[in-house]
DNA sequence: TTGCACCTTCCTCTGCACTGGAAGGTCAAG
DNA sequence: CTTGACCTTCCAGTGCAGAGGAAGGTGCAA
């Protein structure tokens, strides 16, 4: 299967497929006599895995390691579970940070609507944005 | 005031201050006879504004524009309010995306813990990560 | 044979906000 | 007079995941 066909059937561009080969996320492809990359059917599953793993939030570097351990004949499931759990914890932190920020922005907007631009001094640039640590 | 003093008093590195000048977030600094940058006291307020605006989620490009309009003698408050409202809406979207993902990861972890690594086929790399669109 | 689609490699660019380092100038203290 | 702290400019690199494009080879149809 040529690279364009893989691209069409996987939804991943040819550029990206070559890039994945470069960084070790895909095996180095075998070549047809003309020098074109020639892929087996299984590459589609591999690419599907990569997409899914990305959707879960794993980086290509992490995915590469998972695939490498798979290729060494190990089931990388424990490692993957750790990765996913860590990502999940990251997400929790991130969500609560954003929640916090969201609340602050909301207060800013409410207050901002009631302020008169005429009252805004040049030194502070804009009085809607409060100084860090000391809301004006 | 020399750049190092500004750095010490603002908590922003000298490197960053020069960078801000490059991209137009700070005015081009006047120079002492020896060629060193020489800052007026007000630069501290300006830097405080930049920090606060960043904390609110504005990019340096947005901040630059806000400051530019301030320097043209306009009160940029309306513009700032628009920016903050947009950012707030972005945040809402982002938070709900993350919430969604969080739920999916949670399900993944739960299911993953009950799966046996031995049952995991090489073709799918790791059965904890489901194929996009068709959880295994 | 010409045209066109497709393939190859290699190199650069993107966004964002900086950071690091080299090579050299300046200034005050010891 | 030297040491060391500070300043200057300019160039390159960071992380992440590719995208863009040039120059040249290949394959197939009209």
Task: Provide a descriptive summary of the structure in words.
The structure is a homodimer. Chain A is elongated and about 75 Å long. Chain A is about 60% helix and about 5% strand. Chain A has about 140 residues and is mainly alpha-helical. In chain A, a hairpin with a 5-residue loop joins strand 1 and strand 2. Chains A and B meet through helix 3, helix 4 and helix 5 of A and helix 3, helix 4 and helix 5 of B. Chain A binds a DNA duplex (30 and 30 nucleotides) through helix 2.
Largest interface: A-B, 54 and 54 residues
From the spread of the alpha carbons, the general shape of chain A counts as elongated
Q: What ranges of chain A have pLDDT less than 50 throughout 5 or more consecutive residues? A: none
Strand-pairing-aware structural class of chain A: mainly alpha
Mean pLDDT of chain A: 91
Distance between the terminal alpha carbons of chain A, to the nearest Å?
A: 65 Å
Note the total helix count of chain A: 5
What is the tally of beta strands of chain A?
Answer: 2
Arrangement of strands in the largest sheet of chain A:
1-2
* Percentage beta strand of chain A: under 5%
Oligomer status? homodimer
State the helicity of chain A in percent bands: 55-70%
Q: What is the makeup of the main sheet of chain A?
A: 2 strands, antiparallel
The Cα radius of gyration of chain A reads 25 Å
The sequence of SSEs of chain A as H and E is: HHEEHHH
């Amino acid at each position: 299967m040529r690279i364009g066909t893989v691209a069409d059937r996987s939804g991943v561009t040819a550029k990206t497929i070559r890039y994945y080969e470069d960084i070790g996320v895909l095996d180095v492809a075998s070549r047809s006599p003309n020098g074109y990359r020639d892929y087996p059917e299984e590459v589609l599953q591999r690419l599907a895995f990569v997409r899914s793993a990305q959707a879960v939030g794993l980086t290509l570097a992490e995915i590469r390691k998972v695939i490498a351990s798979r290729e060494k004949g190990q089931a990388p499931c424990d490692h993957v579970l750790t990765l996913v759990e860590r990502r999940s914890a990251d997400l929790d932190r991130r969500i609560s940070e954003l929640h916090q920020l969201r609340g602050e922005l909301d207060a800013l907007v409410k207050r901002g609507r009631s302020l008169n631009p005429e009252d805004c001094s040049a030194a502070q640039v804009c009085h809607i944005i409060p100084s860090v640590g000391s809301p004006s």
